[in-house]
Amino acid sequence: MSSENRQRLLQATEYAYRWHEDQPRKDTEIPYVCHLLQVAGLVLEHGGDADQAIAGLLHDSLEDAPDVAERARRKQRIEEDFGERVLEIVEDCTDTREDESLEDKAPWRERKERYVAHLATASKHSQLVAACDKRHNLHAVVWDVKTQGPGVFERFNSVPAEQVWYFASIIDALRGSIPTRLGSELEHLLQQLRGLVATREA
């Protein structure tokens, strides 16, 4: 990786820390930035370039903005500092509209259906970043349920069956467009999630 891209990644990491400061993973004490760092790592592990890794670090920055004005400022900052390609990927990985913010967004199912439909037509650059995001999220859900019990499902704004639907829909939208190993990892984790949900509902 070039010196210039290393500096860009460092700058994006600083933004990720700044924009998600004090934000934990849902109902945990884990700093949210841990997720962003791991998504960027997965992007590079699966052949992504510096722009995609930067987008991995910033992929939640728009939908997690506290209000629409801050969202607009972040969008402008991303484009000015990292370019149109990074901004496009970030927007492709965002499930809220420009008039929505962290505390004011459309209902869960509406947002997810809209996101899945958009992702199916997004560029492969964006699809890789989205896949790495869901790969980390899915792994976290599966292992948290295994180690902490089915109460983990209560963290979410949807019932467990909807979580299965969502991840399955994402995988269907990405099938054939992402690296084989990454696709296999997602499928394996989805099967584990299905088993955990079936056990819970039995």
Overall, the morphology is globular
CATH architecture: Orthogonal Bundle
The count of DSSP E runs of length 2 or more, i.e. the number of strands, is: 0
CATH superfamily: Hypothetical protein af1432
Main pleated-sheet profile = none
Q: How large is the count of helical segments?
A: 9
CATH topology (level 3) name? Hypothetical protein af1432
Oligomer: single chain
- The proportion of strand residues reads under 5%
Quote the average pLDDT.
Answer: 93
- Series of H and E elements: HHHHHHHHH
What is the domain total for the residues? 1
**Helical residues, percent:** 55-70%
The Rg value, from CA coordinates, equals 16 Å
> Poorly predicted ranges (pLDDT <50, ≥5 residues)?
none
Notes on the structure:
This protein is mainly alpha-helical and 202 residues long. It has a single domain, classed as Hypothetical protein af1432. It is built from nine helices and no strands. It has helices at residues 3-19, 33-45, 50-58, 68-82, 84-92, 108-119, 124-148, 160-174, 180-201. It is globular and about 50 Å long. The model has no long low-confidence stretch (mean pLDDT 93).
Question: How does the SSE layout of this entry go?
Answer:
Elements: H1 3-19, H2 33-45, H3 50-58, H4 68-82, H5 84-92, H6 108-119, H7 124-148, H8 160-174, H9 180-201
Helix pairs in contact: 1-3, 2-3, 2-7, 3-5, 3-7, 4-5, 5-7, 6-8, 7-8, 7-9, 8-9
